[in-house]
Write a structure and sequence with these properties.
disordered N terminus; 11% helix; mainly beta; 872 residues; 45 strands
Length: 872
């Protein structure tokens, strides 16, 4: 356990209130001494800003909102929102990417502040994006093409008081294109050095009349699969003992048998003749014993392929001068394929079995290569339909009523898995030839082969209402109030096939989960422009969940502009994260967990310190409570000169009542010490003290705390005949990230997977019909797992010499470039390269066989792309 750092607890609410009072007093005194200048007013259109329900005209508000506009999206060269946002500095420690072999292989999330995909809220046009049915929490960004997006607003501040649950780390609002007239066709291809080539295309159209507008588009993206063996830095040989070896038999205290260690006959554990074929090889240890190994790298894909097809349609019709009917429709169809090595499984064979040459009962630790690689196909369909009515009751009061339905459904089919009961019969009888697996007939293989299936969906139906009204005048302007209410019903289901649920399928795991909840919410937001340069926002939201209880979330934000070029801001808020439906309602799922337990090891005839596999059951916890958070931020926006703008914000987030995973080892250790455990989790032991089973799952405990600084520096120059030059530097420095619990407090910054900082610098030059952009992406040094693990026992230089790491400092930097030409026939040609210098990801031996952390890096190498857009 790492030594806890001393953290001083600040009373953020009192500090923010005191700051506001001081500002108010200072400006009031100033106002009494000087008269307000009677400058000619400038009228700005009011718009809805992410983080607020009140439409306003402020350019730099009280909350830190970063905007990626259409130009920034186009020069990035990215074809999905996931690719775009996962490279941002706010995705502090990376996030989940589509991974072959994962139960959520096509999912791509975002983890603002490193707090996890479940604590980051994704909106589309101000409404919650559909929840992924593969995870039961978080929203899938891989389903959203950049072709449909006008801009992306990133609120790096807690916003539960505005949007409810899950907005602890921040909010991303993906705003689709609205004001487009005409017809546009776009197409592009991407060639990656190490696999995963991609293609894309889109059609966009828009038209309007005196009373109505319609905008729509269709698009597709196609990302191919990539393989570990294509990476020059990956392990070329990753030997698994799940190949074709005899194991001894141990007897558990309940009388059942379990696999033991390798059973050597004349110095070999290899099943005679059974270590031949592609990727099989024999290996002899220093003690002279020979075993069979299987090189699974040859079969293993790294990223899953993803094919996306999207349709979006937005229409507005003015029923009258004051009432407008709006319809938004989004449809997504996604297909994904992954591949990984054939099923590994240990099969019991008695001494009398034709497949057993040891003369005693044994297990065969077998790789079912003759059945072929495991393949998983995911077919997802999602739709989102939103109907809203906007009305202007008076010049100062507007209303909005909405009804919305969303559904995300996924069907997952897995091929070439093993039906364990059938395999046990065929091994025992000799119907399956373990000595020459490839000689078995298709009839025998088909009898053992099984297909897995999952049918998952997440449905949400919602009605909502919002009222905006101006209350009264203050010296700084009109005080406005927003009042809203929402009611939604959520249904979740993830059903596994019966054989998988019963634990009869080799090479697969998991079990079904389902549940539903109703959510009723009411919220209010009040803007108070005390003076022209001092304003405050107050917000309060109440949420009632039918399954776990209530949550009340307040927030206050202040904005003070002492001089025209400087804006100061601060905010304090409280938030929450609701327990997920899978955590509350999942069915018991068997898992062969590995633990260290002296009584069990001795019962199996092993040394007391040996690791053993035990029967564990992962279960739901219906008593889970919501996580609760407190957030504080203070910052400034400064325009020191006409060509530069700087924003600097300090943030701090504290999450109490953390929802954490209690694994089998934690439950064993805490039971032995008499420490706290949720009552659902416990150990069942046999009469001799060995473990019969362990029940594990999610519970509430501990605190997560993080703080840091965001920097955004923008410059713009008009160079006359030499065009326009602009640049944007965006960076996040995370000062601390700690997790505390019964076992103490751990600091994670500076350890494996937790870089101290991330930054992006983009420079863009427009020159006539040409434009050039150059983006530098940088991730601060974060040591490899083994550097952290040894904790100073060995020097980094020693670990580097031994191959556990390939560097001991510095930063990871890549370069993206793009050149675009606006042709006279109203077309645009763009060519570019991401990771221009073909830099390999940071090496980390802990992530064998790929040898890199795919949350932070990718293995594509240099990505060359060509894109063409034609406007009509």
């Amino acid at each position: 356990m790492k030594k806890p750092r001393h953290i001083v607890s600040h009373k953020h609410g009192l500090l923010t209130a005191a700051l506001g009072i001081a500002m108010f007093q200072a400006i009031s005194a100033q106002a009494q001494e000087t008269q307000v200048k009677q400058d000619a007013p400038t009228t700005l259109d009011k718009i809805e800003v992410t983080g607020s329900r009140i439409k306003r005209a402020e350019v730099e508000g009280a909350l830190p909102v970063s905007v990626l506009d259409r130009q920034a999206i186009e020069i990035s060269g990215k074809n999905t929102v996931a690719d775009l946002l996962q490279s941002s500095s706010f995705n502090s420690f990376g996030s989940f990417t589509p991974t072959s072999g994962s139960s959520a292989q096509s999912f791509a999330g975002l983890s603002l502040r490193g707090l996890g995909e479940g604590r980051t809220l994704i909106l589309i046009d101000g409404r919650r994006s559909a929840v992924s049915p593969l995870t039961g929490e978080g929203q899938d960004l891989s389903s959203i093409p950049t072709a449909a997006v006008e801009r992306i607003e990133i609120l790096t501040d807690g916003a539960s008081a505005i949007y409810g649950a899950d907005a602890i780390g921040g909010v991303v609002n993906i705003i689709t294109r609205k004001d487009f007239e005409g017809f546009q066709v776009s197409s592009g291809v991407t060639d990656n050095h190490y696999g995963g080539d991609a293609s894309e295309g889109s059609i966009l159209f828009g038209t309007s009349s005196d009373r109505g507008r319609i905008l729509g588009g269709i698009s597709y993206t196609n990302q191919k699969i990539s393989y570990v063996s294509d990476y020059p830095w990956s392990d070329t040989v990753a030997g698994s003992s799940y190949a074709n070896n005899y194991l001894g038999v141990l007897t558990a205290a309940d009388g059942s048998t379990i696999p033991g260690a390798n059973l050597y006959t004349n110095g070999s554990s290899v099943v005679p003749g059974g270590c031949s074929g592609t990727n099989f090889y024999e290996s002899t240890s220093s003690s002279g014993n020979t075993s069979c190994l299987y090189n699974y790298v040859g079969d293993m894909a790294d990223t899953a392929s993803i094919k996306n097809k999207n349709l979006f349609l937005r229409s507005e019709y003015d029923l009258s001068d004051r009432w407008t009917l709006q319809t938004d429709i989004y449809v997504n169809k996604k297909q994904s394929t992954s591949q990984y090595a054939p099923v590994p499984e240990s099969i019991y064979v008695s001494a009398d079995s034709p497949n057993n040459t040891t003369g005693q009962d044994a297990y065969i630790k077998h790789r079912f290569a003759a059945l072929g690689n495991r393949l998983t196909y995911t077919d997802e369909n999602a739709y989102d339909v939103n109907l809203s009515l906007h009305g202007q009751l008076t010049d100062s009061t507007s209303v909005e009523f909405g009804a919305r339905t969303t559904e995300s459904r996924a069907t997952i089919i897995g091929y070439n898995y093993v039906n364990i009961p059938v395999a046990e019969q065929y091994f025992e009888s000799g119907a399956y030839n373990a000595f020459d697996p490839y000689s078995n007939s298709e009839e025998v293989l088909d009898a053992m082969r099984t297909t897995t299936s999952r049918d998952a969906y997440y449905k949400q139906k919602e009605v909502n209402a919002l009222l905006n009204t101006d209350l009264f005048s203050l010296p700084g302007g009109i005080s406005s109030l927003a009042l809203g209410a929402e009611y939604s019903k959520h249904d979740y289901q993830d059903i596994y096939d019966q054989q998988s649920a019963a634990g009869n399928v080799g090479g697969s795991s998991g079990n079904s989960a389902w549940g539903s909840r109703n959510l009723t919410s009411a919220y209010a937001e009040w803007s108070l422009p005390f003076l022209s340069n001092l304003s405050a926002d107050l917000a309060l939201r109440y949420d009632h969940y039918s399954d776990f209880g209530d949550a009340t979330s307040p927030k206050i934000s202040l904005r003070y502009q002492p001089i025209d070029t400087l804006t100061l801001r601060a905010s304090y808020g409280e938030g929450f994260r609701a327990p997920t439906l899978p955590a509350l309602y999942q069915q018991s799922a068997f898992s062969a967990d590995t633990v260290t337990d002296a009584a069990t090891a001795e019962a199996y005839g092993l040394d007391a310190s040996s690791s053993v596999q035990i029967n564990a059951y992962h279960i739901a916890n219906p008593d889970l409570k919501a996580e609760e958070s407190k957030q504080f931020s203070v910052g400034l926006a400064w325009d020191p000169v006409s060509w530069a703008n700087l924003t600097l914000d300090y943030w701090k987030i504290r999450i109490n009542n953390q929802i954490k995973w209690y694994d089998a080892q934690t439950i064993l250790d805490r039971t032995a010490l008499g420490q706290y455990l949720p009552e659902q989790f416990y150990v069942v032991r046999n009469t001799d003290g060995s473990i019969q089973s362990v029940y594990a799952g999610y519970g509430n405990e501990g605190q997560v705390e993080t703080d840091g600084i965001d920097l955004n520096l923008r410059t713009r120059f008009d160079l006359g005949e030499w065009g326009r030059l602009s640049s944007n530097l965006q960076g996040t420095w995370t000062h601390s990230y700690t997790i505390a619990g019964l076992d103490g407090k751990d600091e994670y910054i500076g350890t494996d997977g937790y870089p101290e900082w991330r930054a992006n610098l983009n420079t863009h030059w427009d020159l006539g019909d040409w434009s050039f952009s150059w983006t530098i992406n940088a991730i601060g040094y974060e040591p490899g797992y083994y550097v952290t693990y040894y904790d100073g026992t060995y020097s980094c230089s020693q670990l580097k010499e031994w191959g556990y790491t390939k560097r001991c400092g510095g930063a990871y930097i890549t370069h993206d470039v793009q050149v675009s030409y606006n042709a006279p026939w109203n077309g645009t040609i763009s060519v570019g390269a991401r990771n221009l210098t073909d830099k390999a990801p940071v090496y980390d031996a802990a992530y064998s066989p790929t040898n890199f952390n795919n949350y932070l890096y990718n293995g594509y190498g240099r990505q060359l792309y060509l894109r063409y857009t034609q406007n009509f």
